Amino acid sequence: MAKLMSLNRRPTKLCDRQFMLKAIDLARNCKGEKGKISPKVGAVISREGKELGEAFRGELAPGEHAEFTLLEKKLSEKTLAGATLFTTLEPCTSRNHPKIACADRIIERRIKRVFIGTLDPNKRIRGLGELRLREAGIEIARFDSDLMSVIEELNRDFMRQHAIGLRRRRTKAETTDPVKRGEVGPNGHRIDYTKNGDKVEWLPDEENPGKEWPLLLRRNDKSILKANDEFFDKVWYDRHQSLRTRVNAGKDKVHPEIWKGALKSAKRVEAKYGKKNLGPHSDFEWGMINGKLSALRWVLGDEWDMLDT
Description:
Largest sheet: 5 strands, mixed
Helix content: 40-55%
Oligomer: single chain
Order of helices and strands: HHEEHEHEHEHHHEEEHHH
Strand content: 5-15%
Shape: globular
Radius of gyration: 26 Å
CATH architecture of the largest domain: 3-Layer(aba) Sandwich
CATH superfamily of the largest domain: Cytidine Deaminase, domain 2
Distance between the termini: 55 Å
């Protein structure tokens, strides 16, 4: 009798994060098409915490998108109105005729809510899939922030192929920023430097005639750049070591030429700082280092770039 009750028991409800994790696990099963770097995408659809179906890119045929496999091949006869879709990558907005874009398929099936792991780095799609879904009245949510980095690392080759920009490098002229005599700032007053090297525009002090006060235009960022480079190297090295462990265990693969360059970079970092200064660190310590790097990048006005292998 107990066995019979177990068979008839209703499926256990899962929380949103569990579906996110499941979609990521599905993405790990993806295999790229020959001669092409394709994203690893997993998708799960649910209603009221119960799974309705799952798929990953190329599961049934090479190159087939996860959403297509899920919506058209596995759940073509299932009513999906009001359901929630979890997909590790932003749904595409255009396909070669006669194919239909995944965003349009989602809209056609009246799906109520879509959780997106990361935006597509391809500039032809980036952000457009999310906008199209929003315009159709579909609720948009994102995967938990800590899972986004997992997806990005899983798709590092694809991300690298569509990188937004190179790591910013500043020339000596940019860091010293010499000012020509007579040059004025945005408010029409003379530009000069403070004793500590900050570039300022000297504005008249209305409360103290004949005196000036410095309006900061750019900080002396030599020391900031030095700290930024150090934290960048250490964060990159930590991620490289994690990947190295997976590669050595046969759990991950990297293109031989890219891996050769990564190993060379790792040796450079080790020689520069010494292995004992590169770890091991606790999760809290690495969190602090990542936080300091983020703060420095913000101060420098840089955007966060992908950290390659």
